[in-house]
Amino acid sequence: MHQPLPLAPITEDTHDVLIDLIYAGSDNFTGQVIYEHALCFLHPQAEACLRRAIGAARGFGLKLKVFDAFRPQEAQEALWAVAPNPGYVADPAKGSNHTRGVAVDLTLVRGDGEVLDMGTPVDTMTPASHHFYAGHAAPVQVNRMLLLTIMLEAGFVHHPNEWWHYQLPDANQFPLIDSQAWLHCVARRHEAPGPRAA
Ligand SMILES: [Zn+2]
Questions:
Q1: How far is the CA of 187 from the centre of ligand 1 (A)?
Q2: Which residues belong to the active site?
Q3: I want to staple 125 with a disulfide (CB 3.0 to 4.6 A). Which of 10, 12, 88, 162 is the partner?
Q4: How far apart, in whole angstroms, are the C-alpha atoms of residue 102 and residue 77?
Q5: pLDDT digits (tens, 9 = 90+) for 130-163
Q6: 68: helix, coil or strand?
Q7: pTM (2 decimals)?
Q8: From the CA of 67, how far away is ligand 1's center (Å)?
Q9: CA Rg, the chain, in Å?
Q10: CB atoms near residue 67 (< 10 Å)
Q11: Which domain range does residue 157 map to?
Q12: For residue 9, is it left (φ>0), alpha (ψ between -120 and 50) or beta?
């Protein structure tokens, strides 16, 4: 009898979502490739909420674009090494809600592929990233409000300092997912679904 996997895969094919994992490339605040595997996972409860959010976004003619979801502990340590800034990056000694699989970083994209203007790029660690930052023009506030509404309706809660970050309520009640369990999920994703070459 197999143990249920602790993480559910999120893919563009199965979820009608765009995925651009910023830590799988070097175009992120560290300037380094942090992720060895460009795979997106969430805790099954968060995955169910994300599906609701995707459906809600569709009602506005929009798609969600995911920048980050489950984050291995080693990756959290790498981010903290570059930016030990607890207002924006969780101390790996305490654990990130991303490492619990219950946090997701994302934005909204129009049907024509244009990303909605949220006022700052993802991972901007300044007050301009805070929800309701007064310096942004009204259309930016509206775009952020739309994302906030979609995510709250889907069952997530927001982070006051980061317009892109949402997580399940009581996120720190969920256990940190260890890297062995995660690598097991990665291995399952890499198993070829079709016939294997001889
Ligand atoms: Zn986040």
A1: 24
A2: 162
A3: 88
A4: 18
A5: 999 999 999 999 999 999 999 999 999 999 999 9
A6: strand
A7: 0.93
A8: 9
A9: 17
A10: 21
A11: 8-188
A12: beta
